[in-house]
Amino acid sequence: MKQATHASFGYNYAQRGHRLSEPKGGLKMAYDEGHAMLMREELQEIEGITEKKMFGGLCFLLHGNMVCGVHKGGGMARVGKDREAEALQIDGVDPLSFTGRKMGGMVDISEDLLADDDRRGHVIALALTNARGLPPK
Prior knowledge:
Elements: H1 33-43, E1 49-54, E2 57-62, E3 65-71, E4 74-78, H2 81-88, E5 93-95, E6 106-110, H3 111-114, H4 117-132
């Protein structure tokens, strides 16, 4: 695990059980690092959270199960099929479809939603509920 401290916030992710993702070879990230920081802040107190590059973006996992992530133009959350309808009632949440086919239990999150603490927190809470109900990987 890479030990690093994000200068803007001054806390050590490795001590909190987080893995950091950094671009290799100076490559530009396909997602907004500011959005990733908002997700990190939301999840920082939860044991078992790790980061993994997936779907052309960055995902946050709880014991190996996807919770949420960021991609170019916004984010996503795995809320599960049982909570999908509730999530879709939140302004800024849409069904997720990377390939033109809806991915059940997954929702797309707008940049506007990511900037709103209450709405972002609600979607992440739904996604955490889903992840906590899954066996660790």
